[in-house]
Amino acid sequence: MFELSQDRKGVTWDVLMYVPTVVGLGIGALMFWYDKNQGLAYLLFFLACFFLFQGVHRILGRMLVLPQSPVSLDVSRQRVSLALRNGEVVELVKNVRYFSDHAGKSFGLTGMDMMGSKRQYVFHKGQFADVVAFGRVADALKVFA
After folding, report:
1. By the 8 A CB rule, do 74 and 62 touch?
2. CA-CA distance, 35 to 118, in Å (whole number)?
3. How many other C-beta atoms lie within 10 A of the C-beta of residue 60?
């Protein structure tokens, strides 16, 4: 059983990435709006909103604030069990797949739960107690690669 914690360092990097992007797209949208190029203004405004929503979701997910955020992870050869913040326990039992990134800083986990719903989760190295725990989870999940 691996307990997850808030990834404050990762949140800092996400804020440094998303805030300038959203502000830049928003300013660009305003500039094109008043320059009478509404078509491009709408596109940039859409992109600003998209990155804003995506950034907020990613940051709240890393901080384990969302109700569907996993707070613990238990891995066995047949299944992966996740305890969510809202108290629900999800067991991925079918079509479980493990995807690691090339940098080794995060991994994705997908699978079907007991009710037949597809679930997808992303875990970051900073959410684990230490690098050793992250490595042990990654090694245990390689069965599903």
Report:
1. no
2. 46
3. 13
Which is it for strands 106-112 and 118-124: parallel, antiparallel or unpaired?
Answer: antiparallel
Tokens of 144: 């599903």
Confidence (pTM): 0.84
81-92 pLDDT tens trace: 999 999 999 999
Categorize the per-residue pLDDT at 1 as very low, low, confident or very high, splitting at 50, 70 and 90. Answer: confident
Report yes or no: 61 and 69 within 8 Å, Cβ to Cβ. Answer: yes
In the block, residue with structure tokens 């067991």: 91
> For the residues of 75-135, what is the DSSP string, one character each?
E-SS-EEEEETTS-EEEE-EEEEEEE-TTSSEEEEEEE-TTS-EEEEEEEGGGSSSHHHHH
